[in-house]
Amino acid sequence: MEITGTEHYVTTNRQLRLQSRPKGLIAPGDLQLSESALPEIGEGQALAKVKYLSIDPTMRVWMATDSYLPAVGIGEVMRGGGLAEIVESKHAHFKKGDKVFGMTGMQEYAVIEAQSRISYQKIPSIPFVSDTAFLGVLGITGLTAYFGMTEIGKPQKGETLVVSAAAGATGSVAGQIGKIHGCRVVGIAGTDEKCQWLTSDLGFDAAINYKHPDWKEKLAAATPNGVDINYENVGGEIMEAVLGRMNLHGRVIICGFISGYTKEVPEQISLGLLIVKRLKVQGFLILDYASRFTDAAMELGKWKMMGKLKDRQTIVEGLEKGPDAINMLFTGANTGKLIVKV
Ligand SMILES: NC(=O)c1ccc[n+]([C@@H]2O[C@H](COP(=O)([O-])OP(=O)(O)OC[C@H]3O[C@@H](n4cnc5c(N)ncnc54)[C@H](OP(=O)(O)O)[C@@H]3O)[C@@H](O)[C@H]2O)c1
To answer: Most C-beta atoms within 10 A of its C-beta, which of 88, 204, 256, 336?
Structure first.
């Protein structure tokens, strides 16, 4: 089929396909750009033009191994979430011009199947809110922070919360939710600029650069009353140091262990402290809360409108930059939500 653009007819679909499973960071050739004919849609389907791709640490896991979803197959279009606009529709639920979020894959055009009413969500147009907010603060990472904090962390006024990868998409929202609930909030991040953003703009009480040699002493100084809640995004040495500061009966929200995703053998930590400190530790997957996304996004949107929730995005231009963009999550080159503009 042909899609009329302003200057030319589009007949092809550029796609990033998985060619080999990465070791460490993604190497040139692990994901390869290919072209195929723009698909024809049949009855019950819609064609969506992908505008922005959400870049998430879990994509590196999907490239390597089976986890909560099967690994992406060799030769398949790389899995990923995206914001797209419907350009042609024979689908009962979507019409041309609708903006949607769903698992588009890393490609320029995605076909929405008849049964995909649930896996693709329409996104509303809200004054002063960019569409890309639905990939970050009002999207999966914001929702992850929301459910991790409210369902597992259950923050109480006056408690101390420590968030790792605090200047990232999920951590920055988790910390601000802690502030909204009256906690003392301490962030851990990898540059002084990120730490400055957390304290000056987002209202964190303290932020610690874990790349400074004395960061553990600084963590102790920033948590004089110990730690009641740990929102854990990183794992390894950072998690172990925070566990060492936990108070009796503290809560540990296991959101992710990004420090291990590019390693063959992730760093192991001693779990004896869980017993000594009687900690409650719970992992979770955001997918489990899908039926409650709309209400939670409304709450996040309300906080954003009230100025209680600020967000930042790092936007990389071009589908071909997708592999570099995924690596940026592991080198810490993003602040806030990392997005590829297709
Ligand atoms: N459970 C769920 O359903 C769910 C859903 C979404 C995300 N997550 C998890 O949430 C975490 C954050 O994801 P995100 O999408 O919001 O990414 P993000 O925080 O925006 O980006 C990742 C950040 O992690 C930090 N980082 C990377 N490698 C590190 C290391 N070895 N040690 C310390 N920090 C490191 C980097 O910041 P620095 O500069 O600070 O190093 C980087 O900017 C990940 O663990 C992800 O898997 C879980």
So the answer is: 204
